[in-house]
Amino acid sequence: MVERVDLTDALSIFYVRPDRLPRKRPWFTAGQYCVIGLNNVEKPELGSVRRPMSIASPPERGGPIEFYVRRIARPDSQNPLTPLLWKLENGDRMYMRAVAAGVFTMKDTVVQSDSRIRVMVAAGTGLVPFLSMIRSEVCRNPHADLSRWVLLHGASYPRDLGYRSELLDISAANQLNYWGTVSRPAEAPEWTGDVGRVDSFFEAARLRDLESRLGLSSGGFNPGNVVVYICGLTGTITSTITALIDRGFVPNSARIREALGVAPEIRASVFYEDYGAEPVIDINDPLVVEPLRVRMQAALSLDR
Ligand SMILES: Cc1cc2nc3c(=O)[nH]c(=O)nc-3n(C[C@H](O)[C@H](O)[C@H](O)COP(=O)(O)OP(=O)(O)OC[C@H]3O[C@@H](n4cnc5c(N)ncnc54)[C@H](O)[C@@H]3O)c2cc1C
Fold first, then answer.
1. What spacing in Å lies between the alpha carbon of 53 and ligand 1's midpoint?
2. pLDDT value of residue 64
């Protein structure tokens, strides 16, 4: 680990220099993750722990690999990674498998010629894959026009909206539509941006506001005009997917599609990367699935 930069008490950027990188360059695609880990030195009986971590740096950039990590205050596991990560000093060794994995990338989700608006929904460190994607566009073309890219980033407090000044700069230079939203505005009276959780942008009463910001007509926020990407904890993904069902957005999950009765020829329009461990939709619970299935069928029949 080359360096840790603390953005808050619990949110830090880790710069890691692997001993070896694959010869092929770039060796990953924006949106992918790799596995990092540590041995538990203080409690060796617990052994080592490894976790997937999205790559924040763009593939085109040389130098150390960047990760943006939240220190978990109340971990679930017996031997959690993040408390160990925060004990590292600059220069300490750690495990990083320099093999990129994952299909939460632009090329694995939509065809290159797809001109629909790309709405990226990030909760907390769920920003990371989108940060790499946006940085990659700007690395390849500093004048890239990102006016059809939309980044919605949610956090509890303004200070938790990591990388905000860089994103505001890209927004000014490359027309990225970037809106941060905070869910505890009462504790941040200086905040003048959006309030509420990031998924609240998609509540029926607020969707019209997003449509007008994006220059869409009423009802225009639909899979014909928009493709949605979500990254973060399960709750954000579940509520965004659920809200968007009424607009005919189809999640990219074979099991959810089947449970909601979506025909195979209807292409997916919501893609997600889940940092949590819970199922996004409990397809085995009829009380959950049945109402969603009815709403999905109603939305799809309107499209026909
Ligand atoms: C593909 C993928 C990419 C990931 N990329 C990142 C990343 O870029 N940055 C990052 O901080 N984490 C990321 N994670 C989460 C990471 O793998 C670990 O789960 C997280 O660091 C907690 O590990 P732990 O061992 O300390 O805690 P554990 O004992 O494993 O506790 C996990 C608990 O923390 C919650 N949790 C996990 N990640 C977060 C988070 N980021 N913010 C808030 N709560 C969380 C889980 O829901 C669960 O309740 C990613 C996960 C996946 C599956």
1. 8
2. 96
pLDDT band (50, 70, 90) for residue 23: confident
Q: From the CB of 32, is ligand 1 less than 6 Å away?
A: no
Q: Count of CB atoms within 10 A of residue 91's CB?
A: 8
Residue 303: pLDDT band by 50, 70, 90 thresholds? low
233: which 2 tokens?
Answer: 């904890």
Which element (helix H / strand E) includes 69?
A: strand 65-70
Indicate yes or no: pTM above 0.70.
Answer: yes
Ligand 1 atom 49: residue of nearest CA: 76
- CA-nearest residue for atom 9, ligand 1, is 69
Which residue has the CA at smallest separation from atom 10 of ligand 1?
69
Residue of 195, 267, 277, 193 whose CA lies nearest to 224? 267
- Give dist(CA 162, CA 11) in Å, integer: 8
d(CA 118, CA 109): 11
Structure tokens belonging to residue 245: 């069902």
